[in-house]
């Protein structure tokens, strides 16, 4: 199947939709609560972290010369490590996609309809990434069925918390895992690419 590359403009729109949403309305209160009246200065730290993440992704693309992430992992790691890694990352991305659904973010379509596309788009992107990961473990399962099972699994897991404290615990831990993944995964790929280059030089 032929694959087309995304234009830079489309990538920019994807990043904009990912980074913006209903959180813009609560961001001033959150920053003031955790960092004080000058909480807006913390956004600079977040900006630097996001810029670091973007630079790491760009470094992976340049070092790998456009090679697929799955090819890099498949050429470097055994299946015993690879499959659990795929399932771990895929399940986390699926849960993050579920959290981005408008019903979870409590978006009122009449008042905040301008953000509806952004939230649905981001949720769909997370689910697509999760499906791509899990597809590496179960390649024979039809994509639509795999996506439906993934969404059903996230809904089933979301029924586990019984109180708001449990929900906050889940949200906090999923967010921490996502932050660690955003930096750790590109660093892992860069390390694997350097190891592959070294092996080719000594071959």
Features:
203 residues, single chain, mainly alpha, globular
What is the CA–CA distance across the termini?
Answer: 33 Å
**Unreliable residue stretches:** 102-107
Strand content: under 5%
Total beta strand runs: 0
* Percent in helix: over 70%
What is the tally of helical segments? 10
Pfam family, one: Spore_permease
Membrane topology: Multi-pass membrane protein
GO cellular component, one term: membrane
Transmembrane segments: 9-27, 39-61, 81-101, 107-129, 141-161, 173-195
Summarize the structure.
The protein is mainly alpha-helical.
Walkthrough of the structure:
This protein is mostly helical and about 200 residues long. It has one domain. About 80% of the residues lie in helices and about 0% in strands. The chain is built from ten helices and no strands. Helix 1 (about 10-20) crosses helix 8, helix 3 runs parallel beside helix 10 and helix 5 (about 80-100) packs antiparallel against helix 10 (about 165-200). It is globular and about 60 Å long. The relative contact order is 0.11.
């Amino acid at each position: 199947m032929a694959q087309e590359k995304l234009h830079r403009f489309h990538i920019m729109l994807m990043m904009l939709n990912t980074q913006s949403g209903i959180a813009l309305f609560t961001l001033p209160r959150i920053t003031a609560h955790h960092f004080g009246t000058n909480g807006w200065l913390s956004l600079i730290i977040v900006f630097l972290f996001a810029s670091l993440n973007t630079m790491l992704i760009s470094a992976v693309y340049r070092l790998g010369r456009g090679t697929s992430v799955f090819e890099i992992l498949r050429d470097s790691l055994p299946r015993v490590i690879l499959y659990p890694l795929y399932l771990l990352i895929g399940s986390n991305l699926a849960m993050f996609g579920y959290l981005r659904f408008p019903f979870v973010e409590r978006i009122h379509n009449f008042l905040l309809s301008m953000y509806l596309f952004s939230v649905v788009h981001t949720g769909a992107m997370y689910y697509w990434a999760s499906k791509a990961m899990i597809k590496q473990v179960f390649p024979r399962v039809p994509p639509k069925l795999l996506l439906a099972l993934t969404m059903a699994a996230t809904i089933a897991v979301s029924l586990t918390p019984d109180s708001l404290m449990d929900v906050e615990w889940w949200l906090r831990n999923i967010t921490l895992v996502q932050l660690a993944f955003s930096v750790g995964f590109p660093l892992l790929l860069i390390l694997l690419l350097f190891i592959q280059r070294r092996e080719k030089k000594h071959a």
